[in-house]
Amino acid sequence: MIADGALPAANGADQHYRALERLYASAPVNAKFASRLHIPGDGRSQLTFTVTPEDYHAAGAAHGTIYFKMLDDAAFYAANSLVTDRFLLTTGFNLFFSKPVRAGQVTAEGRWVSGRRRVFVAEARLVDADGDEIGRGTGTFMRSRIALSSLPGYAVDGL
């Protein structure tokens, strides 16, 4: 029985997902981006970004580095949601830009595709505020020697 006002204890997977979300938020590079990570379940991630004119190239749309950042992060966290002990590293990433994006909210949806031991493959797609796909990418990620528990931003509640 759960006492009034108390929440049930999060399971281990949920604790890992929330710790990865905190890790994302703690990365110094993410202070430069209006973005938020959510991991809804194994092998999935969702990032919301707000693109502003400060992200534009000279022709008035978001620079490709913004696309890469969003796609790589979404695919990476989809893959790392399946790994509870080590930080993954991006070893390769292929991009496809299908539409320019200007100011507004963009969602990056990440999905694990294959691999569970050393190398993982994950993909991501970008969707603009109108629901149009504006880009997609596929990445390969490899287990590193870096323990997640050694990273200051990663903390599993109660452990």
Give the mean pLDDT.
Answer: 91
Tell me roughly what share of residues is in helical segments: 10-25%
CATH fold descriptor? Thiol Ester Dehydrase, Chain A
Distance between the termini: 23 Å
- Tell me the β content: 35-45%
CATH architectural name:
Roll
Structural class: alpha+beta
CATH superfamily: Hotdog Thioesterase
Question: Segments where pLDDT lies below 50 for 5+ residues?
Answer: 1-9
Query: Count of helices?
Result: 2
Radius of gyration: 16 Å
Describe the global form.
globular
| CATH class annotation | Alpha Beta
**What sequence of helices (H) and strands (E) makes up the elements?**
HEEHEEEE
Could you give the order of strands across the largest sheet?
A: 1-2-4-5-6-3
The domain count comes to 1
InterPro entries: HotDog_dom_sf, PAAI_dom, Thioestr_dom
GO molecular function: acyl-CoA hydrolase activity
Protein name: Thioesterase
Keywords: Hydrolase
